[in-house]
Amino acid sequence: MTLEDMLIGCLIMAGVTYITKAISLLLFRKEIKNTFVQSFLYYIPYSVLAVMVFPAILFSTDIIWSGLIGTAVALILSFFKRGLLVVSLSSIAAVYLAELLFRILL
Questions:
Q1: How many Cβ atoms are within 10 Å of 23's Cβ, its own excluded?
Q2: Cβ pair 24, 41 in contact under 8 A
Q3: Cα–Cα distance, 90 to 95 (Å, whole number)
Q4: Cα separation, 47 vs 25, whole angstroms
Q5: Are 99 and 61 contacting, i.e. CB atoms less than 8 angstroms apart?
Q6: 30-39: per-residue pLDDT in tens?
Q7: DSSP-derived secondary structure letter, 72
Q8: Can you tell me the distance from the alpha carbon of 75 to that of 58, in angstroms, rounded to the nearest whole number?
Q9: Which one of 28, 77, 78, 100 has the largest count of C-beta atoms within 10 Å of its C-beta?
Q10: How many CB atoms lie under 10 A from the CB of residue 99?
Q11: What is this structure's pTM?
Q12: Which one of 13-17, 25-29, 71-75 scores highest in mean pLDDT?
């Protein structure tokens, strides 16, 4: 992933975040009481970020299985409400160890 790709991704994410907030401000003059609409507008930026980041997670390693192992470790630790630093460092370590293991075996 090049710097240009990362900047384009950041601009897209900023645009999506701004658009969802602007739509809610422009279209709805009153407070939004519908919980479905509130949650939809709240989670759209996170889902767009996940869609943009997930392919990079899988294909940034030499072997796709190490990316999947790192993703699994991150999901498990975040499910148990570990901190961001613990989740990221543990998933990086898992990817590193998986890459070493796959290089030895293959």
A1: 12
A2: yes
A3: 9
A4: 20
A5: yes
A6: 777 889 988 8
A7: H
A8: 14
A9: 77
A10: 18
A11: 0.64
A12: 71-75
